[in-house]
Design goal:
heterodimer, A: 762 residues, alpha+beta, Aldehyde Oxidoreductase, domain 3, Aldehyde Oxidoreductase, domain 4, 7-stranded mixed beta sheet, B: alpha+beta, Ubiquitin-like (UB roll), 5 helices
């Protein structure tokens, strides 16, 4: 059926990466390059009384020392511009930059930072979003500490609870989580290069968001700032605002010194400064009839936004839409809130407001099943969304296959769920006890009603038949370049080896918004198809005329072009050459705008996403009752992706997502204590290693979506959002004890509560 | 403190260098010899991105002072490809999609090479142990392990 897509094509960037040739931000060198470093705050909440930089300026080899006074526009942010490039008078969190230097070497830069004298006056900080709700505003220009409040309303929950036979109320809590991309943030700013005011190279997740921030900071036209993405060493949502701030600083230093300036964070700097996944405190009340039909849900979720708004307004919006889980619930009242605190700020991380609510709603389903005396599988099958179902936001699901039953069935069969569930339900003796738990989800694809959802690709056929393309969306390590090349190759009927994918560059790529929300294959992939279709149409028209054909409806396959009746006409390369010399346009833009959606913020309902993906993960665990150690033995992960553009890359997403979910579930937590961060490197912030791997069974389910390129939808985030919930349910079965706060590490599993100071502090 | 004269052989080429007493092997490779394939991820020997082979052993080059490596032989990721021919591990990493963002890849390759140079027929558990010190946040390790298994088979059949 396909020649290039739906096949395990090799990654187009793999050769560079396995030979060490791939250049990442920290690998770049420019003539005359200086090294930039940032002096960070000493306290999480303080006023800066004075800064004296004179001694630092006097050090030989120091070319610039800058503070907030030297910043043209000091407030940046994608949604709300409240993030300081450098702290002006007030320190809002421990990662705030206070001053920065550019010097001949890192050693000189470090000396210069030590020579800067800062006098602080500590201010009592707020470190709990619930306290923050009632406190005076942290940001003086704002009326309150509320970053955002979203609501969702359906039916009448009072009536729903009145009609319920069983009602339970539970509270759940999640932790700060670090992205842990293995490459720390790195950029180089080069002043006055090829007509632009400043060019930023480096590990940038979203070139346009970073470009916008730098231009704003410099008070320059967007078209004067160029951001070029290099190979990026992982991002997971994490190299957005924090890298934008770094890019702003490097740009200021570069313009001040008129020399290229490189900034690279150490791991400690990265963990201190970079935004985290939001901790949530959630209250769920759910009612069901005695035969297990859900009647009502009332949900309140409070997110710790930390010092700056960052992505909190949109993260909590995804939570409000998806907080019930993938169930038909006739009466729903959900409120999500984000509050400022003096903790490290929180933003986008793979999942984006879903892992938190899924941990809660999937734990809740198992708790409700237990109350009702039915199995976790039964309660889900009775209530899941199906074709034609109405979601909590009032959206009728009638444009795509609602495949929850299918993903559940496939995951359950692959891991032997029902048999193991029965086995582990029997009383267990001894230190090692086993459990099996499932979690399911629906996830709105792409941005939804957060923003305009358009993307563009430029595709240019050369006169030898080779092709280059570039897009406004960017490789984040997930394989975007490869997937886009596969789509272009399929559509043009040529081999992938003839296609080159260029890096994202804001001065040539069409602004396509951000590479986020698992939207690239879906929205960006459609733009690649459009570009290829446009190029094909131009070539076909030319060839029809050239060969005197009655129709320009030609077939492109295997590097050749055929007439509709299957006659071999001309090779693709030869056609390109003829067309070029005949003056035919061979460079084409493909633009795609997602189908229209809407959200009524006042009423709390609407059609927030144009399509959804469905997934089920099932975890089988063994718990050591003597130590609290959890070993995840097996993990089945079934995901309906519409169409797998590259099944092997897709499996890579599943393996990686499952492991990240495992880390979220049982080991990872950024430990904060009154705004200070205790674990700032991988010796203390523990992420899964090869020794923590369960046997992972990836299951690809394909129900093509009418709006996806070749039917494809999303995979990046769905793989991560389910693991913690499934593991929590498995642990509850194994131990007979429900733990409602993440991570389920030794002390929580053994004792039911955290041990160390600052861990899960109320 | 004065500089120290050090002779090291990197990927078959002998270098005589004057290095500071605190210079890390990682910096020598990256900054002096421009071998930027070796990456820095944590600086404390936890992430493994800086793994190179020093006299046959996989080591964290962020924890080795260059002065300590005097007289040693170092192999970095740039030394795997020979006369345009990829090492079987590199080929297997490409074929098995063991690469995503690629930042851990050089270190992974060096840990894997150090393993199979000594133990040409490792079990899955031995592979997991060999790469335990190499953190990867993208792949979940599965396809990396498959690649190493496949490379050992390829080397065996040579």
């Amino acid at each position: 059926m396909f020649s290039t897509v739906n096949k395990p094509a090799e990654r187009v960037d793999a050769y560079e990466k396995v030979t060490g040739r791939a250049k990442y931000g920290a690998d770049l060198q420019f003539a005359g390059m200086l090294y930039g470093k940032v002096l960070r705050a000493k306290h999480p909440s303080a006023r800066i009384k004075s800064i004296n930089v004179e001694k630092a300026r006097a050090i030989p080899g120091v070319w610039a020392v800058m503070t907030a006074q030297d910043v043209f526009c000091n407030e940046i942010g994608v949604i709300i511009q409240d993030q300081q490039v450098l702290a002006k008078e007030r320190i809002y969190y421990i990662g705030d930059g206070v001053a920065m230097v550019a010097a001949e070497s890192l050693e000189i830069a470090a000396k210069a930072l030590e020579a800067i004298e800062v006098e602080y006056e500590e201010i009592e900080g707020i470190f709990d979003p619930i306290v923050s709700k009632e406190s005076d505003p942290i940001h003086p220009e704002r009326a309150s500490n509320e970053v955002v409040h979203h609501k969702l309303r359906k039916g009448n929950v009072d009536e729903g609870f009145a009609g319920s036979d069983v009602i339970i109320e539970r509270e759940y809590e999640t932790q700060f989580v670090e992205h842990s991309y293995i490459e720390p943030e790195a950029v180089v700013a080069v002043p006055h290069e090829n007509g632009s005011l400043v060019t930023i190279y480096g590990s940038v997740q979203n070139v346009f968001a970073t470009r916008d921030a730098v231009a704003r900071c410099l008070k320059a036209d967007l078209s004067k700032v160029r951001v070029v993405q290099n190979h990026i060493g992982g991002s997971f949502g994490g190299k957005d605002e924090v890298v934008s701030a770094m890019a702003c600083r490097a740009a200021l230093l570069a313009l001040k010194t008129d020399r290229p300036v490189k900034m690279v964070n150490t791991r400690e700097e990265s963990i201190l400064e970079s935004y985290k996944r939001h901790p949530y405190k959630m209250k769920y009340k759910v009612g069901a009839t005695k035969d297990g039909k859900l009647m009502a849900m009332e949900i309140e979720a409070i997110a710790d936004g930390g010092a700056y708004a960052c992505q909190t307004p949109f993260v909590t919006w995804r939570s409000v839409v998806q907080a019930t889980g993938p169930y038909e619930v006739p009466n729903v009242k959900t409120d999500t809130y984000g509050y400022y605190t003096n903790n490290v700020y929180t933003g986008a991380m793979r999942g984006y407001g879903s892992p938190q609510v899924i941990f809660a709603n999937e734990s809740l389903m198992d708790e409700m099943a237990q109350e009702l005396g039915i199995t976790p599988l039964e309660i889900r099958l009775k209530n899941i969304l199906k074709n034609g179902s109405m979601t909590a936001s009032g959206q009728k699901l009638d444009r795509h296959e609602v495949s929850l039953a299918e993903v559940m069935k496939k995951a359950a069969e692959a891991i032997g769920y029902e048999e193991k569930y029965r086995e582990y339900s029997k009383p267990q003796r001894g230190d090692k006890r086993r459990g099996i738990g499932m979690a399911i989800s629906f996830r709105g694809c792409s941005l939804g009603a957060e923003a305009v959802d358009g993307a563009g690709t430029v595709l240019s056929i050369q006169k030898d038949g080779s092709v280059y393309l570039y897009s406004g969306l960017a490789e984040n390590g997930q394989g975007l370049k490869t997937a886009f090349c596969q789509i272009a190759a399929e559509e043009l009927g040529i081999e992938m080896k003839h296609i080159t994918f260029l890096e994202a560059n804001t001065l040539i790529s069409p602004d396509s918004g951000s590479t986020v929300a698992s939207r690239s294959t879906l929205v960006g992939g459609n733009s690649v198809m459009r570009a290829a279709e446009n190029a094909k149409r131009a070539l076909s028209r030319f060839l029809a005329e050239e060969f005197g054909l009655p129709s320009s409806d030609l077939v492109f396959k295997e590097n050749w072009i055929y007439t509709p009746d299957g006659k071999k006409l001309i090779s693709f390369a030869e056609a390109a050459n003829k067309a070029f010399w005949a003056g035919v346009q061979l460079s084409h833009v493909g633009w795609y705008v997602a189908p229209s959606i809407h959200w009524d913020e006042e009423e709390g309902r609407g059609n927030p996403y144009f399509t959804y993906v469905y997934g089920c993960q099932i975890a089988e665990v063994e718990v050591d009752m003597g130590t609290g150690e959890v070993t995840v033995l097996n993990m089945a992960a079934a995901h309906d992706v519409g169409r797998a553009i590259n099944p092997e890359m897709l499996k890579g997403q599943i393996y990686g997502g499952v492991m990240m979910g495992l880390g979220y579930g049982i080991m990872e937590e950024v430990e904060t204590d009154e705004g200070y961060i205790a674990n700032t490197n991988f010796d203390e912030y523990i992420i899964p290693t090869s020794k923590d791997m369960p046997n992972i069974i990836p299951i690809i389910v394909e129900n093509p979506d009418p709006d996806g390129p070749f039917g494809a939808k999303s995979i990046g985030e769905p793989t991560l959002e389910l693991g913690a919930a499934a593991i929590a349910n498995a642990i509850a079965q194994a131990t007979g004890r429900r733990i409602r706060s993440l991570p389920l590490n030794l002390e929580r599993v053994l004792l039911g509560h955290p041990l160390r100071k600052g861990r899960g502090k109320k | 403190m004065s500089n120290i004269e050090v002779t090291i052989t990197v990927n078959g080429t002998k270098h005589r260098l004057m290095v500071g007493p605190k210079e890390r092997l990682l910096d020598t490779l990256r900054e002096r010899l421009h071998l930027t394939g070796t990456k820095e991820g944590c600086g404390v020997g936890e992430c493994g991105a800086c793994t190179v082979i020093l006299d046959g052993e996989a080591v964290h080059s962020c924890l080795i002072l260059t002065a300590q490596a005097d007289g040693s032989e170092v192999i970095t990721v740039e030394g795997l490809e020979k006369e345009g021919q990829l090492h079987p591990l590199q080929e297997a990493f490409i074929k098995h999609h063991a690469v995503q963002c690629g930042f851990c890849t050089p270190g992974m390759l060096m840990s894997a090479k150090a393993l199979i140079d000594k133990n040409p027929n490792p079990t899955r558990e031995e592979i997991k142990t060999a790469i335990e010190g190499n953190l990867c946040r993208c792949t979940g390790y599965e396809q990396i392990i498959e690649a190493i298994e496949s490379a050992t088979r390829a080397l065996e059949s040579r």
